[in-house]
Known about the structure:
The chain is of the alpha/beta class. 49% of the residues lie in helices and 15% in strands.
Amino acid sequence: MRLIFLGPPGAGKGTQAAVVSDKLKIPAISTGDILRESVKSNSPIGLKAKSYMEKGELVPDEIVAGIVADRIKKGDALCGFILDGFPRTINQADKLKEQLDKQSIKIDLVIYFETSEPVIISRLSGRRICKNCSANYHVKNIPPKVQGVCDKCGGELYQRVDDKENTIKNRIEVYKKQTASLIDYYKQKGSLRTISGDLDVKEAYKVLTAMFKKEKLL
Length: 218
Ligand code: AMP
């Protein structure tokens, strides 16, 4: 199954991508995670991406499209994948289509997580990430068993620089200006399905599973 999770930051795409990835044994490919790893390791891509990410701006299309093209060719993605946070512009969507055509594959569904602004803000400001394995937590909604420590690997939890209040506002604006047009783009192609991003983790997963069954993907 090949899926795109589309929606504003804080819509729960990453959390659902991790759950679906685990259950269906297909990789969740998060361009944000890959870029954060690149920044951490000071790789050439990381050095280029860092300043955009800190401001909540989009990293140039050629960089992210290249990352995704390389990643979806890897062995573990050959039978399916979930793209989380990519594409984020029409140009990225066109580049993705070119790449998929080259591999003679197609996206089965684009799932749009429609999310209200207060939910986005509360999710992002309370979000905590594991420094080691990138697992997502939330101080209220998904607290770790021990405060500040990852349940999965024992790594230290931290707040992303771009989850601070001013940057959150900018990321929402960037989403509205540069990414929201993808909703119509995929609607016209007939592959868009909508889920409420305001649901909690378990409810959202139930709705997604029902959707996959209805589409005969499960
Ligand atoms: P995310 O973890 O998806 O919220 O992404 C964090 C940051 O990484 C974004 O604010 C952008 O700076 C950058 N980023 C992630 N994915 C993309 C993308 N598809 N296009 C451009 N920039 C991206």
